[in-house]
Amino acid sequence: MPETDQRTARPTVRPPHGFELPPLTVMLRCALPRFIEGVIAPVAVFYAAFVLLGLNGGLVAAVLWVYGGIAWRKVRGHPVPGMLLLAALGVTVRAALAAATGSPVVYFLQPTLGTLLVSMTFLASVPLNRPLAQKIATDMVPMPEAFLRQERVRRFFLRISLLWALVFAANAAISLWVLFHESIGTYLWVRTGLVTALGAAAAGVSILGFNRCLRHVGAAPAAL
């Protein structure tokens, strides 16, 4: 039996997908601290130490920042995200290679090439009809299989996977050019601004597009 809206005395129909996205402001409040901790702060910490103490000082500061974040969570009894553990492993390897070669370019080359690999992964998932954007979205927000099987939803995730492939490719291409043609300071600020601007724009398009997809899917039964 459909429920009744007491204000209008009309029956209401629940959307078939059975879930709703949290408000955008709530999502931003949750994502912003992690973005600052994982993207903005490490760049600022490394660059400040690099200017004051040289390459080795910057490398040590970057490693201490990541492991300090893990230790802080452990002391407070908070779970440590898997991505943070992977970041700790990555920054350790990068710092060791940069210290061995004496080149800060080596430290920043790996994540830039990693960005290019992520772009290729998003792109490859489209012709395979297994869009990576769908996998990431369902990891964050569980979705019913009946909803995911709908043609409109499938097309949406394919298009969003292409969008993110282009975003990561542009990020990697510009970052590589700046890394090899400009100073490390210029690279840090350009890459940070690039990641922030492109990521925010792509995330906004993704969220707005998904909300639109939800509205279309939710309105479909009403037309029957």
UniProtKB/TrEMBL annotation:
Keywords of this entry: Membrane, Transmembrane, Transmembrane helix
Pfam families in alphabetical order: DUF3159
Keyword Transmembrane belongs to the record: yes
Keyword Membrane carried by entry: yes
Membrane-spanning segments: 44-68, 80-99, 105-126, 156-180, 186-210
Top-level lineage group: Bacteria
InterPro entries xref list: UCP010219 (IPR016566)
Protein name according to UniProt: Intracellular septation protein A
Native source species: Thermomonospora curvata (strain ATCC 19995 / DSM 43183 / JCM 3096 / KCTC 9072 / NBRC 15933 / NCIMB 10081 / Henssen B9)
